[in-house]
Amino acid sequence: MGPPRAILLPALLLILIISFVFFLQSFDSADFSSSSTVLSATKDDTVDLKSTAHQEALAKHALNSSLGFGEIVYISMPDRTDRQDAMTLLASFFGIKLKLIPGVRGSEISPKAMPDGVYRTTRPSELGCWRAHVNAWRYLLDSDMDTLLIFEDDLDWNTNLKKTMETLSLQMQNSQIRLSEPSDYERANAPYGLDWDVLDIGSCKDSGHPDFKDVSQIWNDPDVPDIRVTKRNKLMYNSLHDFGLTDADIGKKRLLAPAYLTVCTSAYAITRQGAERLLMAMSYIGFRNAVDTDMSRAFREGRVRGYMLTPPAISQFRIGGSKDTDNRDPGDPRMGSTINGHGNLHGFSANLKGSARKWMVDNLNLNNWEDYKRIRQEKLAEVTEESSLPARG
Q1: pTM, full prediction
Q2: Is 90 exceeded by the pLDDT of residue 333?
């Protein structure tokens, strides 16, 4: 006879409990981070990280709501709800997700928190701008992300921005200007690679290093602005010529080169290493007078590795008057005496082919009662046509 059921059932239950505990322990000890999961999958011989198919699939990440970066944040002063409304509307219409990094009033920064080396001529608003960008760099370092795209709150872009970024991803995956071969992790996870600190896609003006004009990557892009638009930006126009482009090329090609002289911090991405280097160069060591000029100085001195996209994919949107900046006060002769300017409907962008803002307005435009009138007329025409048909016998 076998053992009594009163003994057998508890023994079986104990065995099941012990087995389940061992399973949980082995599950916890496994590394299920996103990076290791991807890499373990890509070690399979069936996945060729250098294949065109894999590169194209990775580049498709540029079509998502973060344009292929970890996240997109934008900096805006708390009281600029007008700009926040505009950015929320623009992002929603184009399928982009933004996170707000609040702007900072320079006058509220503690004297003890001031970095070394600040010029006496530096305005409080410039210090506040610096502090907000530093907060964005810290946001990346406090996260688990590899990259972060940083916007300011007065942007416009071309209507094919996602396609522009997808093409940029393919170019950077097949980079001719990086200094080292990409790792398997980069090939598997990074649509734009990770060999850079800063990727500037929204410079107002830029120029390359005079000794390295042979270091560039150039490709055809149907969404670059016409040469007549580019010629209005003398520095950028001359820079394209310095890199070997002719007038026949300008208006057809886009260029990626090591960042050297850049103006504005309208739109740029950073890697984790870039955030560390920027935080060290522009806070830990010191800061002088403006985020864009200090970042450009770091490029020129070789302390930060950057790439610049020319013409840019993103530009500032201007309406005229002092609403166009939070770095100058109403009445400043450089901004005009009016606060309101010409309004969003009459605003403009430089360095772009077309305007996402204007395209958005055209597509969201509605005349509800005209639509009702049109439908009524169409139905009336159908009834009239039916009544005019000969009666059936």
Answers
A1: 0.84
A2: no
